[in-house]
Amino acid sequence: MSTWPGLFLALLLLVPSLAAERPQAPGEAGRLQADLDAILQRTVECHQRGGGSGFLQAALRVAEVRTHPGLQAPWGRSGGDRGLGSRLLLAAGRLRGSCADGKCPPAGGEGELVRLAGDFIRGRGLFRSDSAPAAFSAPGSIARLRQALSPGQLLLKYVLLPDRVLVFCIHDGGAGCEVLPFGRAQVADMVQRLSRPLEAFAAGQVDYLRIHFDMELAHRLYNVLLRAVVERHPLASELVIVPDGELFKLPFEALVTGFRVQASASDALFSEYEDAFYLIQDFRVSYLVSLGDLLLPFAAAREYPYELVAFGAPLPPAEPPPDARSAAAAVVLTSTRQEVIELGKLFGGSRRRVFLGGDFNWENFSRFAPQARLLHLASHFFVDRGNPQRSAFLFSAGEGESAFCNAGRLHGLSMAAELV
User: Fold this and answer.
1) What are residue 310's DSSP bridge partners?
2) pLDDT digits over 376-396, tens only?
3) pTM of the model
4) CB-count exposure of residue 262 (10 Å: 0-12, 13-18, 19+)
5) C-alpha gyration radius of the chain
6) C-alpha distances in angstroms, 49 versus 45, 56, 104, 149, 238?
7) Strands 165-171, 174-180: parallel, antiparallel or unpaired by DSSP?
8) pLDDT above 80 for 18
């Protein structure tokens, strides 16, 4: 059976509410990013000149700092921010200075920078104390990452720099870094153009019969971001991807790896998508937010009261807030009702709970979501890069409650679902 119809529909489900392009960070955050970019670039160059695995280890630790959302969000003006932030900026400036005039940074010189970054992020209170990557609390060990990977798994961490893309490649047999000759702005532009039609669909500006997925552009993005990497690792069967910035908007699994020599003559709806080959047909694909996620211990097996708890088709808010979320929140996701109903049919008996419409509310979510082995939410999701704690799912508003369930509120729940 052909896989393209399901793949195309999956694309539509992947982008209910995509984030806007990341703005350039102002002030202190911008200075820190510039210093980290320079340090990272120089450290990778030293590694590639035969400087030893220590430089690769250092580059990987700096990359974890560079891409953490806690440093990309605008800095506040609290006393804790000023004190920790000032020390972090000084450490970054000193390390960048040690790389001047073509010098390589001193061995272990990134240690103070990494420690201060962890302290700063935890001190801001934007993230749970255990959410910082493992590199913040201990020397990030490539050996530990390799041990966590199974044969056939290839871990790819992307870092978008102004004039190049770094791809750290780690597998059970080794590690390295690819330098791709494309800058952040070029990659961001391609990702924006590929995702724009999907965003228009999510905003209700076009129906799925008229949506256009640019397969030529999806093929170019594959050539830019992945071809050299996968060709260098022919034994890989699964890609574990840690994106950066705009790449979080990119469905890697839908990238086009090639086209049929002879195009289909069918005039059936979406038949043009059958003429392409997709990454998901050659690799299993999964995602991590950071390398540290791979090192987090799994909880011991437990009994769950419910195999499935599913939520869908939330009611649009009666009075959406006057910001960028309002237009998307007003779009009724009619297809999610049937989606959740059909999913519920796969789990019979009393060990499933399905909540639709007005029942998709905080009261039911906070009560039943922590009891689920599989948790399914079919709703709008809104990303706030300036303040990640304000990123939110759309729920049906309860009496006296907002329809937007912010990330900060979810932190108070203890959820151990195996799959969300």
Assistant:
1) 354, 376
2) 988 888 777 667 777 888 888
3) 0.72
4) exposed
5) 22
6) 6, 11, 10, 27, 29
7) antiparallel
8) no
